[in-house]
Amino acid sequence: MTITATPSIKDGCFMVRGKVVLTGVPANVVISPASSGSAFIGASSTTLNSRHVFSLGVLEDYKFLCLFRAKIWWMIPRVGKSSSEIPLETQMLLLEAREESALGDEPSSEPATENTFYILVLPVLDGQFRTSLQGTSSNELQFCIESGDPDVQTSQAFEAVFINSGDNPFELIKDSIKILEKHKGTFSHIESKKIPAHLDWFGWCTWDAFYTQVSPNGIKEGLQSFSEGGCSPKFLIIDDGWQETVNEFHKEGEPLIEGTQFATRLVDIKENSKFKGTGSDHSCTDLREFIEVIKEKYGLKYVYMWHALAGYWGGLLPSSETLKKYNPKIAYPVQSPGNIGNLRDIAMDNLEKYGVGVIDPQKVYDFYNDLHSYLASSGVDGVKVDVQNLIETLGSGYGGRVSITRQYQAALDESIARNFKDNNLICCMCHNSDSIYSSKKSATARASEDFMPNEPTFQTLHIASVAFNSLLLGEIVVPDWDMFHSNHSTADFHGAARALGGCAVYVSDKPGKHDFKILKKLVLPDGSVLRARYAGRPTRDCLFKDPVMDGKSLLKIWNLNKLSGVIGVFNCQGAGSWPLKQVAQNLPISTATIAPISVRVCPLDVEFLEEVAGEEWNGDSAVYAFNSGSLSIVSKIGNFEVSLGVLKCEIFTISPIRVFSQNLHFAPIGLLDMYNSGGAIDALNCTKDLGECSIKIKGRGCGRFGAYSSMKPRYCMVDMKEEEFIYNADDGFLIIKLKGDGNLREIEIVY
Predict the structure, then answer these.
(1) Is residue 343 part of a domain?
(2) Which residue has the higher pLDDT, 582 or 76?
(3) Confidence (pLDDT) at 589
(4) Is 593 inside any structural domain?
(5) How far is residue 287's CA from residue 274's CA, in Å, rounded to a whole number?
(6) Secondary structure E strands in 579-680
(7) N- to C-terminal Cα distance for the chain?
(8) Same domain (yes/no): 56, 204
(9) pTM more than 0.85
(10) How many angstroms separate the CA atoms of 469 and 94, rounded?
(11) I want to staple 83 with a disulfide (CB 3.0 to 4.6 A). Which of 59, 274, 685, 749 is the partner?
């Protein structure tokens, strides 16, 4: 439960639950109660402006975690202890507090105790203004409001920053998002949204396989090589490279002017010549025929096409006869000082120079509807809509960044609902609060910057970013942890993370470049995946630690399945460094010379484990370690040590032990050769009759099925047929082989 203790300002101090959080609070700062003990904090000025920076007071000596936009497109996490470390463009701030006193600098190896609570600070949207947080060198915490339109001005913002507190950080974030959903009415919590079906199937994206050189023959070649390896994708994303575009700054026969490629504009809503009979490989007459063929031959369930929110990176070509009806006009993006103050982006810098063909907001629904209805008529099932944050820079003359974002998002939602009945939309490059708090229907969005196969120092950052960003994003969308390469030096690391991320599982392998051993730990023979129930997030004891650069912390990520929990432990140290953060030691990155790091894992690292444990739980858990294949019993408050080298990981299935009789204690593990073993179990029940005890399990997939059993069974049945089993009396490990490639299985264990 979130504790109800409404924040207040007293004698220049901002108080939460009787604790001083901010000192030196200026007189122009005001607080107004919201519901359930939360509040809004704002401020006023004597002047009108389209952008204000207000001080909230001094914040010191609190451990914090923040999520901020390092680039215009993406958030990353940062931890610290004072406001001077809070970057520009911070969009979530979580503080750890103790009832008795604020935390000082003393190191703490002990787990958080009962008197620990958490304070959540969320900069939100206030009318036509968007808010972000930032710190100063004198430890002031500031909030910045901006409209993105010089003509949209204000002198006050009273609901700019939302503050709430609670004893459980995960419940606190969820409760807060639900309060804001109801109060603001501009977005929806993930529980209110229709979830796209592609999330439960293995996929392939063409981007890293071909980049913009994607072609029908290349796609067929890739699908064929997956099929030959016995692991066929069921959803396909045809990424950038299928549209009819032009770079008007590139003259034929002359060298490309570097940067102009980002200003390439859309010429038509239909596919380009590569996907028509006029293309070089003559492999299809048009997009419709191509999709029909690949669906039939390769068993694809869903085909998604890529496009940008503005149509293409550089928008629409104003002189295009077919696109004139959308009234596109060249406009020059204006970036927020916050964006420019962090990492500049090469695409944005060039779009500022060459301009964007902006669709008239009054016509943008017509554009989306025409595009999507054409794609739907061609057999396309959904779209990935990219480059979304570009719109925040184009608000001038349209009522500002919040207003234009809402118009585009509402039009997109309406078109998706009309043309793709299953809410089949993946949002991308959309980590601004303008989009986050305007997300009424979109139900899945990318959680971090791209997986970059050719950047060895980005791999650990990717895993840490998706997990931490999912704290906020996972309450509004199903976070998409991006594709990866199965045939890559870090494939096991990425594959394990996707298995417990609660996200889509898809790769971007080049044709013929696959590691089917990795893929078959993720994908069942029918192409489905064992997706965990929620967004994977860092465990509570990892929230305020830096798993990438502090040299001592491992990253633990938790999730739940229907009957068990799962914890992944990842060593992200020593293989990369966060942008905008100085490396403490100027050492070359070498994963070979860094000693393993240890951490303790406890079953209760899985939040809400009791909710899936059932009434028969005795407090102990059976813990299955995926890589070592070992099974052990750990008490509710017990723990065990894990040591890992750089870019190594281990996944633990945490299955609560159910007591069915004095002698029979039982815990299902699941498919032992799948990363997320417990995801294969849908239901369990136990019946007793005339001295016989029968445990029935509804499961999925094939291969080795494992469980902890305190007794050796008399016999085991799979789909009404008796099957042999292996039982180890020393550790209670019961293993049954599920033969064939059936998906739904009924397992009966009789004692």
Answers:
(1) yes
(2) 76
(3) 52
(4) no
(5) 9
(6) 597-601, 617-625, 631-634, 640-644, 649-659, 665-671
(7) 41
(8) no
(9) yes
(10) 12
(11) 59
